[in-house]
Amino acid sequence: AATLYVVATPIGNTADISLRAWHLLGIADAVACEDTRNTAHLLNRFGLSKELIAAHEHNEREAADRLIERLRQGQRIALVSDAGTPAVSDPGARIVDAVRGAGLRVMPLPGASAAIAALSASGLLGDRFHFIGFLPSKARQRETALEGLAALAGTLVLYEAPHRIADAVDALGRVFGPARQVVLARELTKLFEEIHRCTLAEAPAWIAADPNRQKGEYVVLVEGAPAGEDGDDADTDRLLRILLAECP
Ligand code: SAM
Q1: Rounded to whole angstroms, how far apart are CA atoms 101 and 38?
Q2: Residues 37 and 30: beta-carbon distance below 8 Å
Q3: Rounded distance from Cα 212 to ligand 1 centre (Å)
Q4: Would the pTM count as exceeding 0.95?
Q5: What are the alphabetically sorted keywords of the record (predicted)?
């Protein structure tokens, strides 16, 4: 049964743990996790207590060696991150790669991921999307990164830290133009969940309208560039169409 199970955990609402994940966490020999305190707390909420092994971004390689040793002894190990799906803008990929490279079995236990949850409730097209994860935190690098994304036709899915959300939305407006649709998905599955769709021109005012909106976790989704047009032309075109539709 030696297997590394990559287990998704809730992104807010505890009830989003899957029955399979609950069962597996119950029978695992140990749980490798990003933050032992956080995971101890999570397991406690499910009435579980397990040996925890720290496996965060600063020790992924050493952690992988230790896990491989235990897997070779026939153990079942669960790998979790603080929230959502491991290895999605979270540690985990290096461990999975090392375990697979050692010829050992890795199985995913799918569940919550903020990106997919946000996309599913955004109303933006989900048949083609680009997961960007976090943008660079420095303004210059962020704009350069965005310029490289402006002509993509699929929906863009970004993660952003609460203290940078206002700056990020400003930068999106500058680079993609004011007319593109954006969906701001905040505090998903939590008490103060909000999913707001507007244009990039309108987004800064929505964020500024409530101080709570400068807090909390965000997924930002931006509609893709219209097919066959490059960024600038596409935006001018869209803006003209919107203005024309408003004309009497
Ligand atoms: N591995 C996680 C996943 O599968 O979604 C992502 C981890 S990443 C370190 C954390 C980021 O995910 C946050 O900064 C935020 O952008 C997004 N996120 C996590 N939980 C969220 C939630 N409940 N609502 C909105 N965004 C969330």
Answers
A1: 29
A2: no
A3: 17
A4: no
A5: Cytoplasm, Methyltransferase, rRNA processing, S-adenosyl-L-methionine, Transferase
Ligand 1 centre to CA of 8 (Å) is 12
Q: Which residues line ligand 1 (CB under 6 A)?
A: 11-12, 81, 83-85, 88-90, 113-115, 159-161, 185, 187-190, 217-219
CA 164–ligand 1 middle distance (angstroms): 14
Is-contact 155 161, C-beta < 8 A? no
List of residues 6+ apart from 78 with CB closer than 8 A: 5, 7, 24, 25, 28, 30, 31, 32
Give 248's contacts (C-beta < 8 A, 6+ positions apart): none
> Residue 216: its pLDDT value, please?
93
Q: Which pLDDT value is given to residue 1?
A: 82
From 113, 187, 218, 220, give the residue whose CB has the most ligand 1 atoms within 8 Å, as the site to mutate.
218
Q: Dihedrals φ, ψ of 163, to 5°?
A: -75, -5
